[in-house]
User: Which sequence fits this backbone?
């Protein structure tokens, strides 16, 4: 069996049950599977075979999921692209993953045009709908008149085969692709069923971006596994999500804390009917007490969690009844996953002692794409070294206290300072730079660039920030810039980030 067979089995067993809703389009399980099969045949006719990559630069839609499941049926590998990235960042990912096709949403046609001719492996580009660049066929026309029968892959597709490659920011300034297997996705879905008691009666609002492991691995895939109804929002709009919860009688919504914060700020929050919601699922960073208490007044609480792209993504979960009692904790390990905290020698530590968090289980990836060195460093004897520092308490609840490396999380997105520093060092105004994450009420953390300007130049915060636009994703661009004469460094030349943090965000 492979993940692509999920919609096949639901279509065979309960063909008339609702499957997904996107705008005015509603599909039952039979209709959804038929569209997936048409896409699979179109992919095969285009020459896609087992192991071939297909990249997507797309907003949330039923098309994204149809392509994903069609590739899963025939053994193709999806490469979801973060549409918040700048063209040079996308160019690197595309040339690293070497896809043979690129499908995009019309909103990103200009970005695709900027990439044309720079990715030799891409032989065909298609647009999700009309409104794409001249000469690019649209998806609906492309799959029209294709057979609705189940496709036959040239080689068997199993749970041990790659299903998608999701790129994470790299500590050396270049992202690396986590190769997520069909089995990783399936075991994450099993963990979700156990953790959230999901079944086919659930209605999930899918409003987090599908290019992100949270949107794909928490919202979409577990829902498809249990046969729940997916209500897809193209982009996150707090008012529209709240209206959708009431109209669809939604039982679950996944998001990062800042999304739920935005929902409290719109007028609809005070009057919308939330009685159908079992709980909201929050990830990316801990929910602050005021946010939890605001939702408790509306009769809704949170099931929080800790996850990574490399674990597809669930690692731990904090049950709703513990949201306040264990505030700050990310919970206990999900059922089919082992977690331990170790010292620098790899020895397990007792409760209360801080060490690196390691994860093992069938949901953990086996490799990074074309990165044997990084794979060997990160995955040892099946244990993933997360780079996160934490400790267990006496009851077995995990608390994250710091990051082994300097990554920070801004609005649910991982940001690695080395990547931002690499871009800033190309600026004619910058002689040296160090980037750290500082607390922010809205985004959790944002970047601060500590810059040593070149002699004789007029460097300002506005000029530094402007330089980053178009070269970095918006969430990676530092929100603050300060100027210094020199940066604190070790004897070997490494920037002392702890000193910068102590100076600019004490405590």
Assistant:
């Amino acid at each position: 069996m492979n993940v692509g067979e999920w919609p096949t089995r639901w279509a065979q067993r309960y063909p008339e049950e609702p499957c997904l809703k996107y705008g005015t389009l509603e599909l039952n399980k039979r209709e959804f599977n038929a569209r997936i099969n048409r896409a699979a045949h179109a992919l095969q006719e285009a020459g896609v075979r087992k192991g071939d990559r297909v990249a997507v630069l797309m907003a949330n839609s039923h098309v994204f999921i149809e392509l994903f499941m069609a590739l899963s049926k025939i053994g193709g590998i999806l490469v979801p692209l973060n549409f918040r990235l700048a063209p040079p960042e996308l160019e690197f990912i595309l040339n690293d993953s070497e896809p043979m096709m690129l499908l995009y949403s019309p909103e990103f046609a200009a970005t695709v045009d900027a990439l044309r001719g720079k990715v030799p492996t891409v032989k065909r580009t298609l647009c999700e709908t009309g409104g794409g660049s001249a000469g690019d066929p649209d998806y609906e026309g492309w799959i029209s008149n294709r057979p609705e029968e189940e496709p036959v892959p040239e080689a068997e597709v199993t749970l041990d085969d790659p299903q998608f490659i999701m790129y994470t920011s790299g500590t050396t300034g270049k992202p690396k692709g986590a190769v997520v297997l069909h089995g990783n996705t399936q075991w994450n879905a099993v963990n979700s069923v156990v953790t959230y008691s999901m079944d086919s009666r659930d209605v999930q609002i899918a409003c987090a971006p599908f290019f992100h492991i949270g949107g794909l691995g928490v919202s979409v895939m577990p829902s498809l596994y249990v046969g729940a109804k997916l209500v897809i929002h193209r982009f996150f709009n707090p008012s529209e999500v709240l209206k959708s919860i009431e109209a669809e009688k939604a039982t679950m919504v996944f998001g990062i804390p800042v999304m739920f914060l935005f929902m409290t700020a719109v007028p609809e929050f005070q009057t919308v009917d939330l009685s159908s919601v079992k709980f909201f699922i929050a990830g990316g960073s801990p929910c602050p007490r005021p946010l939890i208490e605001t939702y408790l007044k509306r009769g809704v609480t949170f099931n929080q969690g800790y996850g990574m792209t490399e674990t597809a993504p669930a690692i731990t979960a904090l049950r709703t009844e513990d949201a306040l009692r264990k505030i700050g904790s990310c919970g206990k390990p999900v059922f089919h996953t082992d977690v331990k905290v170790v010292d620098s020698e790899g020895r397990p530590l007792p409760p209360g002692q801080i060490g690196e968090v390691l994860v093992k289980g069938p949901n953990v990836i086996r490799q990074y794409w074309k990165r044997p060195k990084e794979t060997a460093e990160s995955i040892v004897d099946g244990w993933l070294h997360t780079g996160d520092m934490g400790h267990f308490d006496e009851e077995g609840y995990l608390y994250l206290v710091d990051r082994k490396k300097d990554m920070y999380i801004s609005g649910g997105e991982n940001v690695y300072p080395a990547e931002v520093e690499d871009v800033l060092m190309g600026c004619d105004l910058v002689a040296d730079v160090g980037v750290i994450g500082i607390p922010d009420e809205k985004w959790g953390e944002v970047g601060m660039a500590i810059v040593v300007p070149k002699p004789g130049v007029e460097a300002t915060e506005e000029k530094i920030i402007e330089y980053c636009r178009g070269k970095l994703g918006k969430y990676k661009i530092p929100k603050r810039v300060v100027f210094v004469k020199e940066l604190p460094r070790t004897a070997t030349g490494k920037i002392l980030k702890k000193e910068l943090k102590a100076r600019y965000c004490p405590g």
Notes: The longest strand covers residues 430-440. The CA atoms of residues 234 and 454 lie 44 Å apart.
